[in-house]
């Protein structure tokens, strides 16, 4: 008996299943209908994985399509471990009716390994792929690149990529995306340029990935080239590409270009609105950020968790404690549950305002457990506001140390608190504690783009080919700013060394080296843009204000928290960061 039914709900799928079972026949139509309802149950957003698995287990001789589809469905589910379990069933084949893995199986189970960050299992599956002779399959290789990148091993991903004889745009995009996700954006940009030189046309996913890399490094000129390519191919109407462009311009310090692009975007989704609100908030334009948020709601676009993080960041950067608390409470209206990032914005707002008691009480009354970052924010507040008693009490609070024994930032900050208190013995103990556990402090680094190339500096860096000229320029700058009243804030250097050495340490901070290089390599009047991975210190902030005045340059520095637009001796942050 032949019958056909379009399936759009599980109810219809179950009706079809009942008809299939009732017919009892084993003809081609029976097989097609069974395959249709299984595929719907497994892969449709309105499907049912439990029902799909039930169908699989009732099949007498299931072929690889059923197993591969089920593995694929599990890899996309909240519990990807079931994908791996089913793959192992195929691999072990304790029952002869179970098919073995094929070239369609491996990409889906590798996706599960990537989501779970099961690097060791991923390597073992890689070995099985080698034994099965599938390393020439492009689809499998692309999945391996994605898996290794997701498991934070971009070096192995690159090895797979380099050994591929047949690459397509997905191969290039997977590797570029892997570099970006593993904090190697400079290499991502280089690979994108190599891809273009090889005559491979990027797709939307490629463009979004390389724009992320440009945003991370502040590579404005590369981002502009990508924008020109987007316009030539008429891709700016694509929502994901448009949003990536808005985000890139905002993060490269070109907030006006970001606003212009946002205006030109026709169908603004929550991601476009969030990119704009976040960019304005980071730039210190908190009022405009809130105006855009209100416009977003009036357009019936529902905010998501990232939108609310951007809104609370705007409140933090403006010092709006009351507004911040209001918007935190308002998340219930949108059926959003505040996360640690949202609570962190409120804590940071209290801390910046010097309201340390309120901040501490807020943390202790939170409905979720605080993480180590919140307590570090408290300790940072104690340090900058000179609350010695509170810092000593928090230092002794063992819950801080218990939270994450592998988090070097906490130990560095605790050591700095001891140093600020003049307790060098305890600071030395903290350093020894870190050494015993193999913990290494994240070095401060700053990036600047010159003529399309991104240059990266760390504190005291001497590796750059023009290091001698950079330091000579920096000495010249220091002499000039000292005449204008610059006095190194040696209290920022929490080391047991003399004052001259402390001043020298401050002078060699990474953003000062980057700006010195920028002054050497760019024409007078050119805006200098720098991206820093950590929060700027007070000394560098004062230094940059004086440079902007003396050298008549606009300097835009994006640190871990926000933008600082220095112009004529002033900063856009209003000395609040």
TrEMBL record:
Q: Name one GO molecular function term.
A: RNA binding
The record's listing under Gene3D superfamilies reads: Tetratricopeptide repeat domain
Instruction: Provide the protein name.
Output: Pentatricopeptide repeat-containing protein At4g21065-like
Q: Which InterPro entries match?
A: DYW_dom, E_motif, PPR_At4g14850-like_plant, PPR_rpt, TPR-like_helical_dom_sf
GO BP, one annotated term: RNA modification
Protein family according to the UniProt entry: Belongs to the PPR family. PCMP-H subfamily.
Q: What are the residue boundaries of the DYW domain, all occurrences included?
A: 485-577
Which PROSITE patterns does the entry link to? PPR
Query: Cross-referenced PANTHER family, in alphabetical order?
Result: PENTATRICOPEPTIDE REPEAT SUPERFAMILY PROTEIN, PENTATRICOPEPTIDE REPEAT-CONTAINING PROTEIN
Q: Which gene encodes it?
A: LOC104216679
Entry keyword set: Repeat
PPR repeats (start-end): 168-202, 269-303
């Amino acid at each position: 008996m032949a019958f056909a039914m379009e399936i759009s709900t599980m109810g219809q799928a179950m009706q079809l299943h009942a008809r299939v079972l009732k017919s009892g026949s084993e003809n081609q139509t029976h097989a097609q209908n069974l395959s249709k309802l299984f595929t719907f149950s497994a892969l449709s957003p309105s499907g049912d994985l439990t029902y799909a698995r039930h169908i699989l287990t009732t099949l007498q001789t299931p072929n690889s399509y059923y197993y591969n589809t089920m593995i694929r469905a599990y890899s996309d589910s909240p519990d990807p471990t079931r994908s791996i379990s089913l793959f192992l069933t195929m691999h072990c084949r304790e029952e002869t009716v179970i098919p073995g893995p094929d070239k369609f199986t491996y990409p889906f189970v590798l996706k599960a390994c990537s989501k779970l960050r099961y690097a060791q299992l991923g390597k073992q599956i890689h070995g099985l792929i080698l034994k099965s002779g599938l390393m020439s399959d492009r689809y499998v290789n692309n999945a391996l690149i994605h898996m290794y990148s997701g498991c934070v091993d971009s070096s192995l991903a690159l090895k797979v990529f380099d050994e591929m004889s047949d690459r397509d745009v997905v191969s290039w995009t997977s590797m570029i995306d892997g570099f970006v996700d593993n904090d190697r954006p400079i290499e991502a940009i280089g690979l994108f340029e190599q891809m273009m030189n090889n005559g491979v046309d990027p797709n939307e996913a490629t463009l979004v990935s390389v724009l992320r890399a440009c945003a991370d490094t502040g590579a404005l000129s590369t981002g502009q080239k990508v924008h020109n390519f987007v316009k030539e191919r008429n891709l700016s109407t694509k929502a994901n590409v448009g949003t990536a462009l808005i985000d890139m311009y905002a993060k490269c310090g070109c907030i006006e270009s970001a606003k212009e692009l946002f205006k030109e975007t026709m169908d603004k989704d929550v991601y476009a609105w969030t990119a704009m609100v976040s960019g304005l908030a980071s730039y210190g334009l908190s009022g405009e950020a809130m105006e855009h948020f209100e416009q977003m709601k009036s357009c019936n676009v529902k905010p998501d968790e990232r939108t609310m993080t951007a809104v609370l960041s705007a409140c933090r950067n403006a010092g709006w404690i009351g507004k911040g608390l209001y918007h935190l409470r308002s998340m219930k209206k949108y059926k959003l549950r505040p996360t640690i990032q949202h609570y962190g914005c409120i804590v940071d707002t209290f801390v910046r305002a010097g309201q340390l008691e309120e901040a501490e009480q807020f943390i202790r009354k939170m409905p979720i457990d605080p993480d180590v970052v919140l307590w570090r924010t408290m300790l940072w507040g104690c340090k900058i506001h000179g609350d010695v008693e509170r810092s000593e009490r928090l230092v002794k609070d063992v819950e801080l140390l218990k939270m994450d024994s592998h988090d070097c930032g906490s130990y560095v900050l605790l050591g700095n608190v001891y140093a600020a208190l003049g307790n060098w013995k305890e600071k030395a103990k903290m350093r020894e504690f870190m050494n015993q556990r193999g913990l290494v402090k994240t070095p401060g680094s700053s990036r600047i783009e010159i003529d399309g190339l991104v240059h990266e500096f760390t504190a005291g860096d001497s590796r750059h080919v023009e290091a001698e000229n950079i330091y000579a320029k920096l000495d010249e700058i220091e002499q000039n700013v000292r005449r204008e009243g610059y006095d190194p804030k040696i209290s920022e250097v929490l080391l047991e060394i003399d004052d001259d050495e402390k001043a020298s340490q401050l002078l060699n901070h990474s953003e000062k080296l980057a700006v010195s290089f920028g002054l050497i390599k760019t024409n007078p009047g050119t805006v200098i843009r720098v991206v820093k991975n950590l929060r700027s210190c007070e000394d560098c902030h004062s230094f940059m204000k004086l440079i902007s005045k003396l050298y008549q340059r606009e300097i835009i520095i994006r640190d871990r928290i926000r933008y600082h637009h220095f112009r004529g001796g002033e900063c856009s942050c209003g000395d609040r960061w």
